[in-house]
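ARCHIVE CARD
SHELF: 3
SLOT: left
DATA:
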Amino acid sequence: MIIIKQHGNFKNLEKFLSGAKKSDCMHLLKQYGEEGVTALSSATPVDSGLTARSWSYKVSVLKNSYVVTWSNSNIQNGVPIALVLQYGHGTNNGGYVAGRDYINPAIRPVFDRLAKQAWMEVTKS
């Protein structure tokens, strides 16, 4: 015979989840959305400056989550220039221009600060 006994309750867990549910992270997401635009703009390789000036963000609220999306509107002949700079591209004469990873190093510190701040927001008493 197996006997399982449980003592206590889930009061602390319920308090934490209730606080997290009530927390409004929208202001944080907008703040870090702007920070991401600034970081991406300053890290974007500059020729004309159009790609650097073309960064934007959008905050979406889904059923159970928030999503921050950064995008770049500089598209030439159907080609997103920010991605060409990031990943490289072929040339008309058969050559190749190597990409430069500028997006990940620029946005990583923003992600890290956002995650830390969001965690503090949902765990505050």
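SLOT: right
DATA:
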Amino acid sequence: MWVIVGLGNPGRKYERTRHNVGFGVADSIATGAGGRFRRDTHGDLTARVEWEGERILLVKPQTFMNLSGPAVARAAPPESERLVVVCDDLNLPLGNVRLREGGSDGGHKGLRSIIETLGSDRFIRLRVGLGRPPEGEEAAEFVLRSFDRGESEAIGQAVARAVECLRVLLARGLAAAMNDFNRRATPAEP
């Protein structure tokens, strides 16, 4: 079974914020696979679906981003080859996606929590680009803001691109998905 964890912050206040792109990807997969999220015994939202011929456990931790590690540890064993964490990334241009296995947290507090809790960085992460905050705006403020009207279309395309990347990962493997999706692309590209 694959475990796909979409990172975000719980609650209506954060629903449409930049930091919740991971939740958006998980929601899109659940909707496409006919799944429905339910609260598990730990309070996290999970959905079990059949998608692309694979059994998938989708997880949306209901802790704040910087405390995501325990929810991921409960869902998947350390060093799982079938664990994918989907999160936002300020270092990627808006709408780009980047898939890789292992590596540092890149300053992302959700990834930092997961690495510290698992005691390993050996899991697949799919980052969805937000771009850098405008001059003078703190990163923490930027990620907790909703997308501007002009950015909404780009992020919608990025979520669709992230879902397609995961589809390729399941069907053809990590190397193929990285080759297809890790090149720089404008959000308007197919």
